[in-house]
Amino acid sequence: MNSTLFTIGFTQKTAEQFFGLLQDAGVRRVIDIRENRGGQLSGFAKYPDIAFFLDRLLGIEYVHEPLLAPSPEIRKAYKTTRDWQQYEASFLALMRQRDIPESVDLAKFEGPVALLCSEPGPEKCHRRLVAEILANYAGKLGHQFDVKHLVIAKPKRTGTTKVKRRAGTDPL
């Protein structure tokens, strides 16, 4: 089995950007790995709206997999300390405690699938850790999961400089 496992976060994206990234990547299933998927701050990614939008706009299946979410204690500790190394260690220990990845059905991750969480980028988000866990496990079983993170490209600087205007001059 060769599959691409995408990751995506919804914050700092418009609905157009978010759904466009999924569409451009050809995603067929979104697996929501948030524990709290109904929070007020989730906007268009609030459940059940996200399932409706994915289906109606793009024909994408929506699945919720809370076993791949961090515990409230891990999230609370990170909000307090902002210690990413501790968060990562705690999260990986939780995944081992939950028998992840052995207890998940890898067939759910076949085809173009995206793991959904809230963080805008994958650098400090558990979705990256989950993707790495699943890709490593699949590799040991002789399968290949390519991991790709769907993010908005940052605009490139053109190298132009601002021109200072003297007071009282008309720019035209």
Distance between the termini: 62 Å
What would the average pLDDT be, to the nearest integer?
A: 90
Query: Strand fraction band?
Result: 15-25%
Unreliable parts: 161-166
Tally of alpha and pi helices:
5
Structural class: alpha/beta
Estimated helix fraction: 25-40%
Rg measurement, Å: 19 Å
User: Biggest sheet: strands side by side, in what order?
Assistant: 3-2-4-1-5
Name the assembly state.
Answer: single chain
Number of strands: 5
**SSE pattern, N- to C-terminal:** EHEHEHHEHE
Largest sheet: 5 strands, parallel
Morphology: globular
Detail the topology: elements first, then pairings.
Elements: E1 2-9, H1 15-25, E2 29-32, H2 49-58, E3 61-64, H3 72-81, H4 84-97, E4 113-117, H5 126-140, E5 144-150
Helix pairs in contact: 3-4
